[in-house]
Amino acid sequence: MKLFLDTGDLSEVRRAAEWGVLDGVTTNPTLIAKSGKGFKETVLAICEAVPGGAISAEVVATDYDLMLKEALEIASWHEQIVVKVPLIEPGVRLVSTLADQGIRTNVTLVFTVTQALMAAKAGATYISNFVGRVDDLATDGMAAVQETVDMVDTYGFESEVLVASVRHPLHVTQAVAAGAHVATMPLKVMEMMFNHPLTDIGLRRFLDDWNAAGLTIG
Ligand code: G3P
Question: How many domains is the chain partitioned into structurally?
Answer without folding.
Answer: 1
